[in-house]
Amino acid sequence: MDLKITTLAERPELAGPLWNMAEDWPEFILHDPVGWSLIGRIVAELPEYVVVATDPEGKVVARGFSVPFALRARADGALPDGGWDQVMLWAFSDLRHGKEADTVSAVEITVAEPARGKGVSALMLGAVRENARARGFTELVAPVRPNAKHREPATPIDEYAYRTREDGLPYDPWLRVHVRAGGVIDKVAHASMTVSGSTAQWRAWTGLPFDVAGEVEVAGALVPVHCEPARGYGVYVEPNVWVRHAL
Description:
The protein is α+β, with helices and mostly antiparallel strands. It has helices at residues 33-45, 83-97, 120-134, 157-160, 173-180, 199-206, and strands at 4-7, 50-54, 60-69, 103-111, 139-144, 184-198, 214-216, 225-228, 233-246.
């Protein structure tokens, strides 16, 4: 596709339109409290870490969010088991306290439905990488949400993350894009994102009854949701896969 990719800092007029892309995140994902409270702050406070792709008509067809944070000051540079939620909390804590960032984490790359299957996700990952490199960083990390894992929610993430094809590349398409771009799988973030809600909320989000105790497979979920109908709640703990990119 013939796309124009810039940072939001360069084109601030896209701050509104970038939210209006046609996308298909599962409803329950939108209720992660960390994401709900912080994702908008990236646009407002870190526009130089947002890349936006527009088509020849000027319509936004993809966006990429990233955040700078101080990784090496924490636990000898080990990436957190808390994954996506934790890196977002670290990034905005560091911003508030004026800590010097040494690493950038990609946190979302979304491609509008009509533009999918055309290599746009790889272009956006490349743009996020290049933007971090241009700002003087030597490493980009990403808590990757494997985009085919939802088809087999019962498969352990530690098995799925390292599964490869005959050519040695990852089985999962989104992990494969990262590895082709030079990324290296570092570890599994077993508790990358947590969404909790009442059973009534889970019914509204999924259309499922949530009336039996135990694991409930939900469309779009990478692992089953734990349901406790007698106590009136359900909890989803999503695993992601940390990938490191040297820049």
